[in-house]
Design goal:
Blueprint: H1 3-12, H2 17-44, H3 47-52, H4 57-64
Length: about 70
């Protein structure tokens, strides 16, 4: 489910407090998982691929080595 669809759902029908807290936790965990997956993929890119997306080797390694909870 796309984030904008979830936001629309919540805006149209507020969740009970416990459900809202559990939902917020689930969204946070999904963001962390996506961030970690993206960083692993970034770490596997070759220098010419990094150049294509406008990153240096150093910038890519710094980002790839961040913990999943860090922005």
């Amino acid at each position: 489910m796309a984030y904008q669809n979830v936001e629309t759902l919540i805006a149209n029908r507020p969740l009970p407090p416990v459900a809202a807290a559990v939902f917020a936790l689930a969204v946070t965990v999904l963001k962390w998982e996506q961030r970690q997956s993206t960083r692993r993929a970034l770490n596997r890119l070759e220098p010419h691929m990094l150049h294509d997306i406008g990153l240096t080797d150093v910038a890519a390694r710094v980002e790839a080595n961040k913990a999943f909870w860090q922005d």
